[in-house]
Structure formats: structure tokens, C-alpha cells
Amino acid sequence: MARDAKKLSAPAKSAKAATPAAKPFKALVTHSDALPLEKELLLSMHDTMVKARCLEERLIAMYKTGHGYFWIGGPGEEAFNVPLGLLIKKGQGPAFDFCHFHYRQSATLLAMGEDPVGAIRQMKNSASDPYSGGRNFAGHFSKREWNIAPVSSPIEVQYAMAPGTALVQKRHGGDGVTIVTGGDAGTAEGEFASCLVWSSRKGQELPVLILVTNNRWGISTPFEQVQGVEKISDRGVAFGMKTKTIDGNDPISAYLELKEAFEYVRTERKPYLVEARVSRLYGHSSASGANMNTVEADCIAMFEAKLEKAGLLTKPQAQAIRERYTEQLADLARLAKEEPFPDGSTIWDHVFHGEPGRDPFAG
Amino acid sequence: MARDAKKLSAPAKSAKAATPAAKPFKALVTHSDALPLEKELLLSMHDTMVKARCLEERLIAMYKTGHGYFWIGGPGEEAFNVPLGLLIKKGQGPAFDFCHFHYRQSATLLAMGEDPVGAIRQMKNSASDPYSGGRNFAGHFSKREWNIAPVSSPIEVQYAMAPGTALVQKRHGGDGVTIVTGGDAGTAEGEFASCLVWSSRKGQELPVLILVTNNRWGISTPFEQVQGVEKISDRGVAFGMKTKTIDGNDPISAYLELKEAFEYVRTERKPYLVEARVSRLYGHSSASGANMNTVEADCIAMFEAKLEKAGLLTKPQAQAIRERYTEQLADLARLAKEEPFPDGSTIWDHVFHGEPGRDPFAG
Amino acid sequence: MANIAQAVRMALHFAEENLGVTDVFGEDVGPPLGGAFTCTQGLKTSWNSPLDERGIIGMAMGIAMAGGKPVAEIQFCDYIYNTIDLLKLAGNTHWSSNGQWNLPMVVMTPVGSGIRGSIYHSHSFDASATHIPGWKIVMPSTPLDTYGLLLAACKETNPVMFLIPKALMRSRGVELIPGEPAEDKALSKMIDAPLGDRSKWAPQWPELSDPMIPIGKAKLVRAGSQLTVVSYGRTLPLCAQAAETLAAEGIDAEVIDLRTLWPYDWDAVKASIEKTGRVLFVNEDTEVTNFGEHLMRRTVEELFFKLLAPPKLLAGKFVPGIGLADPLEAASVPQQHDVEHAMRTLAVVAP
Amino acid sequence: MANIAQAVRMALHFAEENLGVTDVFGEDVGPPLGGAFTCTQGLKTSWNSPLDERGIIGMAMGIAMAGGKPVAEIQFCDYIYNTIDLLKLAGNTHWSSNGQWNLPMVVMTPVGSGIRGSIYHSHSFDASATHIPGWKIVMPSTPLDTYGLLLAACKETNPVMFLIPKALMRSRGVELIPGEPAEDKALSKMIDAPLGDRSKWAPQWPELSDPMIPIGKAKLVRAGSQLTVVSYGRTLPLCAQAAETLAAEGIDAEVIDLRTLWPYDWDAVKASIEKTGRVLFVNEDTEVTNFGEHLMRRTVEELFFKLLAPPKLLAGKFVPGIGLADPLEAASVPQQHDVEHAMRTLAVVAP
Ligand SMILES: Cc1ncc(C[n+]2csc(CCOP(=O)(O)OP(=O)(O)O)c2C)c(N)n1
Ligand SMILES: Cc1ncc(C[n+]2csc(CCOP(=O)(O)OP(=O)(O)O)c2C)c(N)n1
Ligand SMILES: [Mg+2]
Ligand SMILES: [Mg+2]
User: C77: distance to nearest CA of chain B, Å?
Assistant: First the structure.
């Protein structure tokens, strides 16, 4: 079988083109041109957003040139994901934040300080992949040192686990919180409701920051076609929890809104449900072609315009940043391409913790 | 093994006694002494409520005297369940109402006109049990001629199926609706949320009357301990559906409130979520002893007081009704006790529709 | 010649027109996509569901109760495992109601490895499905069988689980579906949705008819005298190929495509084993509590004294997932050489 | 002498005090009830969960991730089937993260028939559980084994599924749990919650210790030379009883209590079959794609030429449920006379 034929859902390439244009969201928060954050923070957010975008574009290029079977990631969500990463208290154990992420979170990891080579290695499914050793798809991070739970493909299961880490954190004391992320379509799964139920028991509320990135799509299915809620955040109201819907395309707004939510959860030790409206810039995944969508808002372009207007960044400067990351990531990809796959015999490793891997029927 | 030893969860008899007294609900609707329904309806509701209570008491007596392994049913919910049954458009197929009930619905069936002997036969698990042929527990009704879907023990699964029958009804046209019932604790399961999602898609709303009987208990667990919602009906608000919480202990209020909800669902072809506050008068089931709880409000006693005050019913009349049903049901139970169990060989019947039952390995 | 995805599509079209199918639905099943594998493009009753597998199975049950005839898709069988309670309920509804209710519903879902789908797009479901009473379970390996058995599934008045080996989704058969144009390109022009805007596209369906392939009948893929190989799904073509290879070495194997896993064609399997005395069962589900073990149990209980060699199972390794990297997938589920090796080994066991 | 419910309770108490168990939770697990079978009365870390099995398993996974040590209960295994995706996820988390994360968690749930539980309080879960890689699976049949193996489960750093045969919940063993008073009544006074108001009650725990029963070791219940019977759970005492009955007829059977279903003690089973040449596997899960079929497959693949008779499985009938009426339950799952009949038949097969 040709390598290409093995690509997941290769046939669906045609589908992307048929996807109707997304209706842009109405502005949720009106931001003036004033920039209520310090210059350093603004520029560092911008820098990480670009880095994250370049990383995703590199991963897509790897897919398209046969250096990986499947791509999925978060281009278009950087304005939300970078502030999120900056606000996380990273470390291991219940004193630190726990992260139950989905597969669009590369920008968050970079904002937390992660080396992008890991994502590239996972794309290449080489043995050096630090998250799964070549076992799992791109974007499926896992980093125990930073309490990043393994991203798993089934939609929404992370929402069932989040109350568990939060319970331990609440008991432990301190200000560590649990963060859980997922998409809009996934909120139709029962676990989303479970998360609301388990986080909001009276007197036993849990410190969970429940996040939903609403890009109005579940693969090819528009949100409005399959769900009747106007604002996903409203789902939390009946549970007596704080809720809001924010503009996830503006990193300044996202930073401020997330900061407020984090502070509430850290200090009150109660849940907060935040829906962020975001774009999906390269379609769902490589199964839908992974081509740039020019209709949806690009948070980086918008942010750069704002920074330029404020005199904080010139076009050539922005261009230079992008070129630098493009190059760096191309270098990393070249490196990764040479790295070996895991050996077949390693399938037996890590079936059980604390036990050497072996075929139970090998005799 | 002694027959008694086989009873489900026999040990938990002790548990009932330990159950803390339920806090009575605050009155939800203030009803004057005025009786805004016709006398005939009032008296017929009362009659059926008493009949239903006598039926449940007979089933409990059968359990306690060893004529059945397990009892579960709806004593305490008659003021809600009888009006519900009266308002159902019964018949077979999508032109009529579909009923996805749980295990506390005997009064609804009686109000629909069902012969109580069926419940008694199911309690006795005799071959003559019209709902399951001696296969299923008491209270697990099924009657295809009236669109009554088989009651199954797993909590809340009926909420996942209800949108399906409603979809066919919506397409079929007419005013048939789907009714689904379940308890308060069960709303923590994901299918409750699924029902809200699937019923409320914009432009594709479904005619489902989504009912929750809130008795504030899930077996031994108080509602407030495990769920943070004040009113379960609020769970529907985010989905843009009509919602209300009603007093399920007053048959007049329940009738009027259900009537309004039924009319909306029948004509608008959209969902309505109604939470009814009810009592649980004999504990959860035989597993918790099935003894009368004297702390919770008894809807029949309250209704009789009201009818007496209005001069519609005297104490002796009420007493006579009760005695008549008690006797009738005792007679039916005597009859059922003599009826044979299904034969062991019948386990093969009805594995597949349209095929004779046989052991596939019988050779 | 149609591939399996096209065969599914044509069958569902035929079933909408002639067998009363009212709803073909699931995640991304409706327009514009028409399914992750294009299986539902252009169908008139197809629609997109919420992302909720439990809701999907519940909806199918409800539709079936109310007199509709649903074909529900679970996008990948990897995502069906939160619905097993509902599948069990669907399988027991007829029985529990003592014959009152029956649920004519089809659940279809792509299964298995072979497209580098990693941990969550490579699962098998045959072991789990065959442990659920009250379902008929079908798993074809050719486009014609897919087409014919899907029609049979739509005619059923019981729940049917239709497992589609995703590795074979694009593979073409040698037999024509009755009515389809013989030329691949011609069929594609008629029924494959175009690139770009599909809002004005409508398929041109060929004049199809029903080949009447019954549920419960196995297919003799290759007759042989020295050993029996029983398989289904992705591994079936590997077995057929291996039999050809071994024939050149003088080993004459009989290959049976089970096609229906429940109720399965024991008569066919039994007759073959009685003839050859040696049997290899091949599938790719994980090997502990595996349906092939059931077949082996029955073989041993009924045919022990006719066996010339211990029956053998070749199945997926008992690991928690199928890893993405090529060597991991290859080491986890039977490959061509594994099948050949198992057949050769079995052929030479001295009785 | 403790019964199984009391053994569970004492084990969990010991584990709270000595093995770091932080949470014993599930539906009605906390006060006042302390579990549908009283297994969790009086425990200091027990609490009542929402009625949401998916939430329960998710919560356990989260607690385990964050450094806690949960013991989660599913009230009846009949209600675990909507969580299989999560159980699979728990079982693959260590593997998928290439060894980074591990989930030290115990899920316990009552299984099986025998109390006239009808369709939804009679399910078995051994077949389904053994098909999920990454879990250790335990199913004791005596109070001492329950106690010892539950301690072992709480010491594990991997997910453990602890299946409790509900028919045996009230049965007493012959062996004392180290520390318990020999007198039933004395123990009951100490650790059974009283009738009536329990708000002021506190248990008086005996001074317990750990009998060190390892996961993965079978127990020889009766030594014998002519045939081997391998069972676990509710059917184990039936087998032991049958062996006594048959001994009087001159049939000398060896009875093995598997106790751990994964990883199971193949060495013990194999040694016994090598000695007797005849083996009967008995369990009560439905018989298609059944764990006993796995054991039989292994027996055949490894010991074919040592067998004097075809190995045999006695299991639950392949019907959608266990009916409430006595004759239905009796016809659906192995009873005393079925076991005896199967053993007798096997003993006389001429090689
Ligand atoms: C349980 C489950 N069902 C189906 C899928 C297949 N699938 C992968 S992503 C996706 C859509 C998710 O949409 P959404 O939740 O909005 O997240 P987004 O991808 O838009 O960020 C689907 C259906 C899955 N991974 N898991
Ligand atoms: C899925 C599932 N989980 C657990 C149970 C065991 N169980 C039976 S009834 C019950 C409590 C139900 O409480 P609620 O939903 O409030 O209904 P009520 O009995 O109070 O009317 C439980 C936990 C079950 N039957 N199904
Ligand atoms: Mg989305
Ligand atoms: Mg309740």
C-alpha cells in the first residue's frame, strides 16, 4: 500500500472545499484601541502567537510532504491559547494547575515554555516523540511534569476527569486549579454536563476553569444545525456557576477575561465556565485538507494591525519574527525527519506501570 | 438457599430507618381553596389516585409475604401521575403519544385505563405478566398498543430515546407527542442533557414533554448533596425551551400545569421541560424496606381534605373507596398467586423478532 | 467497479427508495460532507447529528420504536464504547418486553486498522459486538457483499450492527453490484460528490437491484483440502492472498469469509474443518476474550476428535492501543507475513 | 467469621489507614447507607456521588492523576456499560503517554446472578473486563480472598477492576481474616451499622493486618487427579461442592479458583491440565466471546496433545437477559446440577 493511501480519511480532501463559509461572530466585547496591558506582555504574546502559528504550519507542511499520517492542531486559536498558557501555574502535583486539554492546544504549550520540537517529533511519530513515543497523533500532548494530562482523541472525556483533579486540589489547599478545554460540538456529549454537575455541588464546589473554544464547527457540521443553545456558557447558569462568553480572537480581551476567571477560581475555589469564540483557520484537520481558510478572522493579522496602530510593532518587524520562526521550525523538522521510528517490539512497554513489557503469550 | 435470602439487597432493610427526614418543599404554587376543575374530573382523579395507592400497597404486601422478589413503584406520586395519564392521547403509532416511563408510573397507567392485574402479575413474575412474561421487575411496564415503551431499570436511558419517537411524530404530523419521565437524581446522567440537546435544535425542535419527578432522593442520597441546581427545570433555559417547576403533590395544580404544557408541545411541536416536586412515600424500593414514610406529604390525604372542605367527598365515602380497592386488589393478588411461572425453556423466546426461539448451541 | 464506500452509498440509496429506510444519520453524515469516508454522500434522508454517540443510538432506538427505519452511523467504532449499555438495551428490548417491541435499526461503523489511524481510529469491535445478544452482526470484505448485506440489514426487523473494515473502504471487488456501470470512472462521475460547492450537486444513481445476499451465510473464497482459514474484514484478503502464495508451495488451503458474525454459518465452518482437520481463525481484534476464541471453543467442543492439529487463533496483540508509527501498527495486528507464517506452521503439525 | 460485604469493608478501612486510599465513593456509598450491600459502612473517606457512572469513572481517573488513591464503586455492574470507553482510556493512559502517567485506581462492582435480580441486577462483567487491556481484574469467592485481594488492589499502581459476586455477598468463609474476631456476632456488633439513626454511630474496627494475597495467583481449592475445573465467583462454590459429590462416585476432580482474571495464573492451570488431561471451565457470563473461551483457546494451543478429552465450557446462555422468575434464572446460568452434569460427562469421555 502506498504511504499516501494510508492517510486517515484521505478521501475527505474534497470535503473541505464544500464547507460553507462560517458566519463571523458578532463582536462580543468592544475594545477600544487602548492597550490595557504592558508593552512587554503584548509583544511577548504576539511573539508566541506567531511561533505557534509557524509551528502548526510546519506540521501541516510535514503532513503534506509525507512526514506524518495525520495533522490536527490549533491555528486560529492563538489569541486565546497563548494568554491561557501564560496564566497557568505550571508544575507537578496538586499545588499546581492541572490541564485537561484537547488537540488544539499547541499555542498554550508554547506559552507555557514548551520546546516546539516535541510537537514536530510527535507529528513524525518518531521514537523521540516526548508525549507518546510515536504512538499518538499530532497535537496529543502529555507532560506529567507540568500536570498536562494525556490528550486523547475521544471528544469530551477530559471533562469527566477534570473534577477529579480539582477535588484533590481543593483538599490540598493552595491555589492550584484544574483547566479543561474542548470544542463547541463536543458539548453535546454527556460528559460536558457531567463536568457541570460534579463541579457545582453546593458546599463542595470544585476549582475548575471549564473552557469551551467555540469555532462554530464540528468537522463539517455547523453548530447552529445541531445545537439550540445561543451561548454555550449559558449551560452553566442553572448550576449556579459563574459564566461568560468572550472574544477569543483578541488576545488582550482574552487575557483580561481569563485572568479574571482564573483569579475567581483560584481564590473562591469554585468553577467558572468560559466560552471563547475563535476561528478555525486550517479546517478541522488533515482529513479536511488542512488548507488556509480566508473567510474566518485571523487573530494574528488583527493583533498585528492593532500593535502597528499603537506604534508597538512595524510590519517589517512582524515579518521578521515570522521568518525567524519559520526557519527555526523548518530546521527542527529536518532534524526530526532523520530520527528513527520506535521498534515494533516496544508495543509491550508500558502496558502496566512498574512491570517490564512482555507478550503474555510469548511463553 | 431460602427464598428470602435471594431478595435483592435484603441487607439494606436497616438503611431505611437511617434515612434522614426529607425537608418538605416550599409551596411552589399557591392554590386557593377554589377548585377550578369540574367535579367529575376531581372525583375521578381522586378515585384513580386511591386505586393506584391501593395497588402499590398490595404489591408491597405481596413482596413482604414472599410473592415477589422486588418491589419498586410510585406511591406518593399519584397527584402528578394520574393527571399525566388522563392527558395522554393513547393509541399505537406516531399519531398517538409515546411514553418513555420510569418505574414509578403505575398511577399513570391506571389513569390511562390499564387493568391493575397486570402490575400484580408482574410482581408475581408469573408467565401471565403482560409486560414481560415474568422476566422483569415490578413497575417495568410495556404496552405497545398504547405506545408505552418498555420501562428498563437503567436510570435515564429513556431520555436518549425520547427524541427519536418525537422526530417520527413531528414528521408524521398531527398532535402526537412524546412524554419522558425520570427522577431527580437521574438528571446527573448524560442522557438527560442529550435529551435537551436533541430536542431543541433550532428549526428542528421536537415535540417532547420532558418530565422530571423530583422527590429529592436518589435511593439514600439527598439531592442537595450531589447536585448544585436549585430548580432542575432551569437546565432547559440555556436551550431556549419552555420550562417550569410545579407542585406535583396537588392534582389540581398538576392537571392544569400539565395541560398547559401538553397543549404547547402538541401545537408548537417544541419541547417543554417540567419538574414536579413529589413525595416518596414508601422509600426507594423494597431494598430500603418499603415502609410508609410519615414525614413526607401525602397527596391523597391532602386532596381528600380539600375535597371534603369543598363538600365534594366525605370521610366515610373516601374510606369506602379505599376499602373497595383494597379488597379488589387483594382478590386479584390471590388470583395471581396461583398462576404458574414461565417455563425455563422460554428463555429462548423473543431473542430475535420473527424467528422461533432456540438455543443456538443445541445442535 | 464500486469500492466499499460507494457500495454502502448505493445500498443506502436503494434502501431509501425500496426498503423504507427513513433516516441515515450521524456525525457529518449529512451534506456537505456525506460521511468521513463519503459513504453517505447524496442520500436523500441523510442528516448531521449532534456530536453525541449516546444520543445517536438513543435516537435510532426511538425512530425504530415509532415505525421509522434508521441507519445510524458511529463515525469510528473507537467512539462506540460509551454506548454499550444502549446497544445491550436495543438487543434486549424484544426479549424484555416478551416479544411486544422490536427495533428494526441498523448501526454502521468503520472498524479496524490499516490506515495508520493510531490509538483511536484503529479499534476493532467484533469481540465486543458478538458478546451482545439480540443483535445480528455483519462484517463484509468486498463491495458486493457490503452492498448485498447492507440491503439485508435494512430488511431486518432486528437490530443489525454493520462493521465496515476501514482499510478496505477504497478497495474494489471483482464482482459487479447489480446495476452499476462496469467502469470505475463512470460510477464515480455519477455518484461521487464533486470538489468545491456541492449545494447544487445531485447524484445520478444507477438502476440498482438486490443480489439477495442473506445474513448468516459464509462465503467460500477459495476451496482447499489441507487446512481451513476462517476470517472476515481486513484480514480476509490477507488470508486469500496467503492461500494463493501457499498453493505455489503445495499447501492447499480453504478460505472462508464469515461475513456474518452472528448468527454465523457454523455449518459451513464445520463442514470445512471436518474435511481438512486443521483450522486457523484470523481477525484483528485484541486476542483475549476474542470472537475467534469462541469459534475455536465450538470447534473443540464439537470436532475435537476430527482435528489433525490444534486449532489456532491469529489476532491482535493484547496491548492497549495500536500505535501510530508503522512498526507499532505492524507489530500489533496480523500482517500478510503473519498469516502466511501461521498457515505454514499449522499445515505441518504432525497429527 | 466475616462475610464478603464485611470483608470489603474491613479491607477498605485497612486501606484508608495504611495504604493511602483517599476516596471510597459511588452512588449511596457514603452515609447513611454505606452501599447497597453495606460494603462501605463506617468508612472515613466514603462519600455519595451524583447518579452518573461516567462521572464516577472520570472522577476516579482524575483523583488518581492528581495523586489520590480512589476506590470507586459502580452500584451494579449492570450499570457500568456506558463507561467502557472510559475504562479503556484508563487502561491505555500509561501506554498512550509512553509511561508518563499511571492511574492507581480501583473500581469495584457487584456482579452476577443468584439474588433474583432480574434483567438489570444479574449481569456478569468478566468477559467485557478481560477484553480491556491495561487493567488487572480480580474476582474473589471467599471473604479472606476478598479482603486480601482488595488490599493488593489498593497497593497496585495500575487500574484494578474488583468484581464481587453478589450471590456470595453474605456467605462466610472458613478462613479468618487476620484480626477479626472468630465469632460472627462479635464482628457484626463492631462494624455493622445499627438500625435507625446512624448519625452517632461509629464502627469499632478490629486490629487488622495484611494476609499478603498477591494479584495473579490462583488458589487450589481441591486437589484431584482425574479432571480439572477452573472457575471463579458465584460458580466456584458450585464446582467445589460438585467435586465433593463426584468424589463419592469415584471421580476425583481438581478445583482451581482463578481469583485473578488478568493477569491470570496460567502456570497453575497448565500444571493441573497436564496432570489430569481433562478440563472444564465454568463461569456465568454469556457464552459467546466469553473469557472461558480464551482459557480454552490457550489450553488447546498449548496443551492439545496432552488432552484426553475435549475441554469444555459451562457458562451463561446466550440470551439478552436473566429473567426474574426462578425457572428463567435457573435455565440461564449454571446451577449446581449443571456443573455436576458437565463434570460427569467430561470424566467419562473416552480418549
Ligand atoms: C467521542 C468522539 N466522537 C467523534 C469523534 C470524531 N471527531 C473528532 S473531532 C470532531 C469534531 C469536534 O468538534 P468540536 O468539539 O467543536 O471541536 P473542534 O474540533 O471544532 O475544535 C469529531 C466528531 C471523536 N474524536 N470522539
Ligand atoms: C444507570 C443506573 N445507575 C444506577 C442505578 C441504581 N438505581 C436505581 S434507582 C436509583 C436512584 C434513582 O433516583 P431518581 O433518579 O431520583 O429517581 P427516584 O427513584 O427517586 O424516583 C439508582 C441509583 C440504576 N438503576 N441505573
Ligand atoms: Mg468546533
Ligand atoms: Mg428521586
Answer: 19
On whether both D149 and D113 belong to a single domain, the answer is yes
Q: How many CA atoms lie within 13 A of A285 on its CB side?
A: 22
ipTM value, please give it: 0.96
Task: Report the CATH number that the domain containing residue D335 is assigned in CATH.
Answer: 3.40.50.920
Beta bridge partners of A178: A98, A208
Residues 233-252 of A with CB under 8 A from B: 234-235, 237-241
From the candidates D13, D94, D121, D131, give the one annotated as an active-site residue: D121
Residues of C acting as catalytic residues: 121
**Which of A197, A205, A227 lies closest to B197 in CB terms?**
A227
D38 touches chain B (CB under 8 A): yes
Mean pLDDT for all residues in chain A: 92
CB proximity under 8 Å: C 164-183 to A: 169-170
Tens digit of each residue's pLDDT (9 = 90 or more) over B121-163: 999 999 999 999 999 999 999 999 999 999 999 999 999 999 9
Residue B219 CB–ligand 2 contact under 6 Å: yes
Kindly determine whether residue B345 and residue D193, on different chains, have CB atoms separated by under 8 Å: no
Q: Which domain holds residue C21?
A: 4-191
**D62, D157, D263 ranked by CB distance to A162: nearest:** D62
Q: In angstroms, rounded to a whole number, what is the distance separating the alpha carbons of residues C171 and D325?
A: 51
Is residue D255, in this structure, part of any structural domain at all? yes
The CA B155 to ligand 2 mean position distance, Å, reads: 5
Query: Which residue, D21, D18, D66, D67, is CA-closest to D40?
Result: D21
Is the domain A34-287+301-338 a CATH 3.80.10.10 member? no
Q: Which of C230, C262, C297 to mutate to test the interface with D (most CBs of D within 10 A)?
A: C297
Distance CA B105, CA B96 (A): 19
Do C251 and C301 contact (CB within 8 A), yes or no? no
pTM score:
0.96
- Is the bond preceding C32 in cis, omega lying within 30 degrees of 0? yes
Q: In chain D, which ranges are continuous DSSP H helix? A: 4-18, 53-65, 84-96, 126-130, 143-155, 184-191, 235-248, 266-276, 291-303, 326-332, 336-348
Question: Any idea which residue has 490549533 for its cell?
Answer: A74
Task: Write the CA distances from B246 to B240, B242, B251, C16, C88, integer angstroms.
Answer: 19, 13, 11, 44, 35
Specify the 3-state DSSP secondary structure of C335. Answer: coil
Give the model confidence (pLDDT) of D15-70 as tens digits: 999 999 999 999 999 999 999 999 999 999 999 999 999 999 999 999 999 999 99
* DSSP character string of B13-57: HHHHHHSPPPPPPPPSS---S---S-HHHHHHHHHHHHHHHHHHH
CA pair distance A40, A300, nearest whole angstrom: 17
- Interchain proximity D318–B360, CB inside 8 Å: yes
| Cβ-nearest to D301 among C128, C305, C312 | C312
Do strands D253-257 and D160-165 pair parallel, antiparallel, or not at all (unpaired)? unpaired
pLDDT in the model for residue B32: 54
- Please confirm, yes or no, whether D121 is among the known catalytic residues: yes
Confidence class for position D327, pLDDT limits 50, 70, 90 = very high
Residue of D118, D188, D287 to mutate, interface with B, max B Cβ within 10 Å: D118
Neighbours of chain A (3+ CB pairs under 8 A): B, C, D
The single-letter DSSP state of residue C195 is S
At B9, phi and psi to the nearest 5? 55, 35
DSSP string, A189-222: SHHHHHHHHHH--TT----EEEEEEE-SEETTEE
Residues C159, C25, single domain; the answer is yes
Centre of ligand 4 to C-alpha D28, Å, is: 13
Domain boundaries, chain B: 34-287+301-338
| Cβ–Cβ under 8 Å, residues D93 and A164 | no
Query: Which region, left, alpha or beta, applies to residue B203 given φ > 0 means left and ψ of -120 to 50 means alpha?
Result: left
